[in-house]
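Researcher: Hi, I'm a grad student and pretty new to this. My advisor asked me to get structures for two proteins we've been looking at. I'm not sure of the right format, so I'll just paste the first sequence and hope you can take it from there.
Model: That works fine. Here's the first sequence with its structure tokens right after it:
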Amino acid sequence: MRRCLLAIFLATSTLTAQAPPFSVVEATIPEMQRAMAEGRVTSRELVSQSLLRIATHEEHLNAVLAVNPHALEQADALDRERKAGKVRGPLHGVPIALKDNIHTTDMPTTGGALAFEGYVPPYDATITTLLREAGAVIVAKTVMTELANWVAGGPTPMPANYSALGGFGRNPYDTRRDPREATNDGRPALSTGGSSSGIGTAASLWAANVGTETSGSILSPANQSMLVGIKPTVGRISRYGIIPITADQDTAGPMARTVTDAAIMLGVLEGAAADPNDPATTRCRAGDTAEGPRYISLLNPRALKGARIGIPRAFFYDEVAVPGREKPTGGINKEQRAVMDEAIAVLKAQGAVIVDPADIPSVLAPRVDDNLVAWGVCSGTSGARGQDAECSVDFKYGMKRDFNAWLNSLGDSAPVKTLTELRLWNLAHTQAGAIKYGQSNLDISDEMDLERDKARYETDRAKDVRLAGANGIDAAMITHRLDALLFPGASGASIAARPGYPTVIVPFGQVPNAPTPKFPDTFAAKPSPYGVAFTGMACSEPRLIALAYAFEQATKRRVPPKL
């Protein structure tokens, strides 16, 4: 069985039959550390509680793709170390979870793909090693959108947090199915965001988790789950041993219930030295060697005083005209605007200098070739060869290049040897549940010729960085001398992702869950979480984390889900 949850329950129920002296529910990492240091709880007890919560809530959350069968043994070993006077760091004995595209050699790593069912890779991801060296207990692998949502684009795009192996993950803030006829395929009524999952962290199945993002897959699920998400600068964290889409934008990052917990996780994930297996990890090393303790030292509740925060009104808050299009696009609705107006008022009250507007120049560029909004990502059948003149080929080119390189790193153990083989395997196993929504993104990736299309890729990659970076975030921040840009929810994810820039999102408000077409009148939809995001230029995580912490401490708006 995929989870063996009944066995987990039976194994842990006797250990947790009496009320524990310490509860993992909504507990922070520092609180767990204090409780262990004071002898009020052990790592084994923390992990037992996590396993019991998984067994109790998994049926209606579907948060887990695999459970670590050695989690209690590993917790026991860490307890013995603590008793002997050895504490590895702030994660010693703490239960956490990993997205299932991150290699672990004691659990399968599948990416949610049927072709990789039960596959255990021959090496750990660098971040898996760093977490274990820091004393974390990896209790589970989380559900995810299959292959980080680069399987099916249009005309039938894969829904968030769906995979052939895992089915649909469910949002703990409303676990019900979508009742609308056109979308009644099992997906949740309240989106989980994607492709990472914040389900288990929001529901206190573990202390925090690691997601991955290429364009929004940390920020979106954090926003939808009332979590803090840190999408780091590309290169700050090693990607070695993580199933890729494109190395140009891929990164791992932490998702947690507090900024402090996320900062602790980031320090561990970053490590103390560059990873020789990922040359990009030298990017933020010069002049910035922040580790966990240093990030923690920057958590100043008064960090907003005097900080210059820019409001990118055009497109991200207000509709804009786009060259070549008849109708304006972008903007937020009145309920979202009310949340952001309140957030801006908080920033002012905390002494921040609000620069409004601080618009992104490339968003307002009158020429199509210079306009960021007019320049999308080639995806689905509409992004196939011959139809891709007005979109970036970075994702589909990068997937062909980097996915094949990842498969090659697996050696003889790889279930398939190339992207082509995966596509053919999927076609041969549709009756078994593969590619329920098709595989148009895999198809357009596989049609790329890495030699013939290299010049086109390089041109598009340079345009991505120019429009989103130099003429985008960089231009706005330099012109207005900003510490950060403030984006509504996860709306700034794509612009920051293209040049590989960091963002920290913080829980703050809730807005109506009112999709189009609307729910039946008899369906009382519960509200959707809605956060605020601080974005900066490359390697600005220390400053962004400080600002996010000050905002969090001034508001403390996170509301736990009612399970």
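Researcher: Oh nice, that was easy. Here's the second one.
Model: And its structure:
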Amino acid sequence: MSAAAVHLTVATWLWALLPLLALMLSMLVLRWGGKKAGPFGLAVALLVAWMRFGADIDVLENALLRGVLLSLPVLYIIIPALLLYHVADAAGGIRNIGWSVSQMTKNHILQLMILAFGFTTFLQGVAGFGVPVAVVAPLLVGIGYPPVEAVAAALIGHAWSVSMGDMASSFQALLSVTRLPPHELGVQVALLLGAAGLAAAVSIAHLHAGWGAVARWPAVVGVLGVVTTAAQVFLAWLDLWIVASFGAGMLCLLAGFAMARMARYQGPSRPASLPPKPEAQRVRSALPPEGARRMSFHLAFAPYYSLIAVVSLATFVPAVHDALHAWRLRVALDETVTRLGVVTPGEVWRLAPLGHPGALLLYTALVGWLFYRLNGRWPGRQAALLRRTFQEAYPTSIGIVSMVALASVMTASGMIGILADGAAAATGRVFPVISPLVGLLGCFVTGSNTNSNILFGAFQVEVGELIGVQPVLLAAAQSAGGSLGSMVAPAKVLVGCATAGLAGREGEIFRRVAGYCAVQVLLIGTLAWWLAG
């Protein structure tokens, strides 16, 4: 029997919803982080599964083990990605990339497209966790942009790339909980977010100077938008999800640097004939702080060049690929059946510790550290770097493990099936329009596209099967909506405000980006509905 074996009633549906409500209320009302809210939601799920859905100790133990095992591949990406970012940041590579861009061109639209669109996409590809916003927002303030515009631009610019970012950790989480065909799902996610990426490029120019900026510089917005989004789709089509956002961001940087060399883009972007902008909205040219240690762009970018080399070797050289995947960990998971007849089939969990994307990130972090050290750029803070990585990863890891386990318990006990039955009955074939809103809600509450996919990925698949829409499409819309939710997630807004000196003005930032987010989510929902039809 399937998860739908439990009879659907209003009371049963509300009981199935209770663990998600507990999670949401604890984060929105009690202001708990994922480290506390995740275990609390899991405890409620265990209690409800046992009391109302016939899950005995064996079922619950198996579900918890599945949850822990499914979370390991995600954590194995997230923690090494943070380590790689901190290696580049400690050596001064990140800030030197920003300074280099500010000196290449005085065209503010091109500067924003390179930094707020290309560089945030690139950083999202290798780090995530709000790192793109935390890095680029103060970087834009440092080179003269108004703080509110700087934070809003970074939030808009990074959101479209979140699903394939952080070495595809959000996408990996979606695969773990849905078991859908990886190639089809990756292409669908990239296509939906490609449309959102084009809208994000237009939105950044519009944020800076309205539709006039878009009309005056269509090549900057159009070329960089198309090049970047097309690169992500192409890499996803090649099944290179782990470098899809990274590669797209890097190509945007290269294309932007090439445009910056053209005479047309050397001067200011605002014609002298137009009236000056209000004082609070003007961009003031700024140089690197006095005494700052400069390095060339290529030296600053060295760890990421090595990432390209490491991933290429591990992917395209059969001997290297086979050697890295020769050793695999395996754990057999038994089939379970609840007292109400909900069956969870048995399976074998596998992980290749030496060939997993997380291992490739570890190799890259080591190469980057050696490169900086050999060039005299390493500050000698290995212990501090490891400590900072652990401090940032620890609370997030607790949240991810507990939320994956929560989703596993809800699936094994039939709660996800009940929720899907109710949603299918209430919305029918209109659900694809709503699908990305579910993803956005999950990200808004948890602050993470990864957590949103974990909580609602299986739910979207169940609804798709019930209403006759391809589950791959709804899972892709779920991830796309969760990705765009990063634009308005309170956790991300708080990070941007804290790093740009806008503490207490979070509401102002939210209002600036909410309209752009709504348009992009509506676009994704409309596309999903059209494709479903």
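Researcher: Is there anything I should tell my advisor about the second?
Model: You could mention this: The mean pLDDT is 86.
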